[in-house]
Amino acid sequence: MAAHASSDAHASAAHGAASPASAHGSAQTESPLSLRPGDPRPHSVQAAPDSANPSARPHTQNAAPAPSLDACRILAAARVHHPLALTDLKWSGYFHLNSRMVEQLRVNRVFLAGDSAHVHSPAGAQGMNTGIQEAFNLGWKIARVLSGGAPQRLLDTYHLERHPIEREVLRQSSFITHMAEADHGPLKLLRDRVMPVLASLGPLRDAARLQISELAIQYRRSPLTLERVLDGGPRAGERAPDALVHVVDGPLGRAPGTGCVFDLHDPAFFSLFVLVAPETVDDVPHDKPEPALRRKPSRAADIDRFIADVDALLPGAVRIWRVTDAVGEGGPLLADAYGRTRPCFYLVRPDGYVCARGRVSSDLHGLLRHCEAWFAKGAEPEPPTPLT
Question: Are 216 and 210 in contact (CB under 8 A)?
Fold first, then answer.
């Protein structure tokens, strides 16, 4: 079907399908843009790339008659508020929504991610972000098992961490779909009256943006997290935020400079950030005179021993950065993003999530035992418990 318009127009085609292995959320609904002839709600028209090839056409049992060109013209005239001419209909059909997910993301040596693991409404635009995060979550764990000798049970945490996220994505996308197609009742009132007001509020709009983009996802209840109480900063299991830092020491040796956490973190490695107090009062930001930032730095020998022990446990797998507070532009202040406890450490996974945090002076033993159990060669931890 060709579309000609006097102004810019875009036509897209989509086809919904579900994996036969899917077991959860077996509900199948029509898209808010895909309904039967005569229904007052919108329709969706799909164009096949090769109408002459019968194999290119979808095979659906008990499928409703496809909308005709005249029906498509009537719909376009009623719903497109620009001059639009529809001609040369090659193929048309109805787009059905499925909301399904598999019961297990891992079965022995087989792992499922993306569309093979779940299918849902495109409402909310979360499908791509979900699949990317699943691939990243699984990829570094497979690499650690194959190249680093980590225990096989590390791979089980892929299902433990990601399956609850997928379930929530299906719930959200289904709710947004039902709200979008509601033509009466509370959902229509929520969509037409309440949502515009909420969207105009900055904090709520920012929270919704983080939720939809999936930057607010956290794995705090994952067995891979080691949490210790610090004065602020991201908790173990949360996404590591960016911050402006002054690099005291790093993988290339003592080459002081200023950078951002996001620039220092290499997704091919774990990153251990050791936060130390500024060596002089002059290094402290003028608007941050808190005593926690003006303390004398801990003995360098203690920090050196801490770094050496972690590096020896995860050889070639971790990049260690000794950083302190920096002054300037380019990112949030370190104290604002990571709290004011000094010295402390944050161990960041390759996928950018904090898997452990604590104090250099008291939590070295716990960190080493945690890394031995999950990330080091030859370890066999207890089976993880499901997240609820």
Answer: yes
